[in-house]
Amino acid sequence: MKKMNKQRVTLQEVAKHAGVSTSTASLVVRNNPRISEATRNKVLQSMEDLGYVYDRVAANMRSKSSNIVGVIVTDISNTFISEFLIGVQTTLESLGYTVLLGTTFDSVDKQERLISTMVEHRVGGIILNPASKSSARTVKQLNQIRTPKVLANRELSDVQCDYVGVDYEQGTWMAVHHLLQKGHRRIAFLGGIKTSSTWIERMKGFKRAHDEENVTIDESLIIDIVPTREGGKEALAQVMDQPEPPTAIFCFSDLVAFGVIQALSARGIQPGEDIDVVGFDNVPEAEMYHPPLTTVSSFPRSIGVKAANLLYHKMNEQDEELQRLILKPQLHIRETSPS
């Protein structure tokens, strides 16, 4: 016998079952505060009894708006990204939006597919933490979509949208200036991808600090590598096995610094005593690490809050001018590079 397809329960059927109008049932599924608690409970019970599932995509198409925001990040296992997401999600939820999260694992191809998928599902807006090797193709894709969007943490030149980040150049200058003032003249720069805006901006600060002290940079001490713990360990081996190893290390991120510290300890080298190590981000683990890490605050949670608020205004005020919000960094001196 041919099996009949089960049709989706309609909102009209829910309204009839609950004894209310279709418009009232619609207000309930949209969580409108004007509906009394008794009516709301009655409609919700009918939805459960009938197995009703709200077709949000169809509703978005009818209203030409959505309360879902797409957030695309590189790696949720990175504490910096986790802190950033806390700021984004708590802010958007307080504004009545739901977050749809996508992770690229720093892959440009995955990033492009996620952007396309979110646009196809008619999200109300997109917050993007771009992959480090984002290309001109990514820029073209972002400029072609009409969905409101905000870039966070990493800029892409020529993308027509708002941006929130920290002053990476100044933060790096603060860290390297601190090391130079302590008398270090062979400072390594470990981690990060050379093509990314965040690495380029950090390098500007690295060079500026050296130029101001008339100290020549040894290019062999600059190792660009994936900014992870393992990347930090690998980069550390490359500079410490040189005839003249560095006396201090500036790390692209705290995550890189944690790998560097682990690798130094394995060699019997004590950070803060035998060699100075400075990170970047000031994730919660930095203060509790052993030894506690000297690092630069990049305020990821604040960036998340500001990115969410910017997107909210962009979604509700389409004519608002583009904004570029840059937070001021702060150096925290701890045991891996004491004063």
TrEMBL record:
SMART domains given in the database record: HTH_LACI
UniProt entry tagged with the keyword Cell inner membrane: no
Residues in HTH lacI-type domain copies: 9-63
Keywords: DNA-binding, Repressor, Transcription, Transcription regulation
PROSITE patterns attached to this UniProt entry: HTH_LACI_1, HTH_LACI_2
InterPro entries with a match to the protein in the record: HTH_LacI (IPR000843), LacI/GalR-like_sensor (IPR046335), Lambda_DNA-bd_dom_sf (IPR010982), Peripla_BP_I (IPR028082)
GO terms of molecular function: DNA-binding transcription factor activity; transcription cis-regulatory region binding
PANTHER family attached to this UniProt entry: HTH-TYPE TRANSCRIPTIONAL REPRESSOR PURR-RELATED, LACI-RELATED TRANSCRIPTIONAL REPRESSOR
Protein name stated in the entry: HTH-type transcriptional regulator DegA
Organism: Bacillus safensis
